Amino acid sequence: MSEVTIDFIVKDPWRMVLVEEGPWEDVSANLSRVQSRLYGCIDAAIDGHLAQQFPESNGAHVTVQLDCYSVPQDEVSMFFKTFSSSVLHLPSYKDALHSSSFVTGFDFQINFA
């Protein structure tokens, strides 16, 4: 797994929060970077890295949250909706989640300020 920067973790319920700040000049490049960060969050939870740092999260349902400040809302909303509705249907992620003892499932949330 490559290194991922998670801006902060919230407990009860468990949230892995990514913060994105704009303005963005190259929307496509930034969406690609955000996608990598989102995959990294999912990987960290499925592979047990979250549970290693926070043992009380072991077996939890986790929300991956993206907080956005001054980013192009329409483009980011469309991207996030597509990503969050399809990622866990990819065979590799579906199988990994099913066999993981570290996390029971994921929700996704996006916020704009």
Q: Strand-and-helix sequence, N→C?
A: EEHHEHHE
Q: Which structural class do the helices and strands define?
A: alpha/beta
Distance between the termini: 31 Å
Rg over C-alpha atoms, rounded to the nearest angstrom: 14 Å
| Coarse morphology | globular
Strand content: 25-35%
Mean of pLDDT: 95
Total strands: 4
Strand order of the largest sheet: 1-2-3-4
Q: What's the number of domains? A: 1
Helix content: 40-55%
Low-confidence blocks of residues: none
Number of helices: 4
> Main beta sheet, described?
4 strands, mixed
General description of the model:
This protein is globular. A hairpin with a 3-residue loop joins strand 1 and strand 2. The mean pLDDT is 95. It is built from 4 helices and 4 strands; from the N terminus they run E-E-H-H-E-H-H-E. It is an alpha/beta fold and 113 residues long. It has a 4-stranded mixed beta sheet with strand order 1-2-3-4, covered by helices on one side. The protein has one domain. The longest helix has 20 residues.
Short description:
By secondary structure, this protein is an alpha/beta fold.
Considering the chains and any ligands shown, give keywords for the structure:
single chain, 113 residues, alpha/beta, four-stranded mixed beta sheet, 4 helices, 4 strands, 27% strand, globular
Annotate the secondary structure layout.
Blueprint: E1 8-10, E2 14-21, H1 27-46, H2 49-53, E3 60-69, H3 73-86, H4 91-99, E4 103-112
Parallel strand pairs: 2-3, 3-4
Antiparallel strand pairs: 1-2
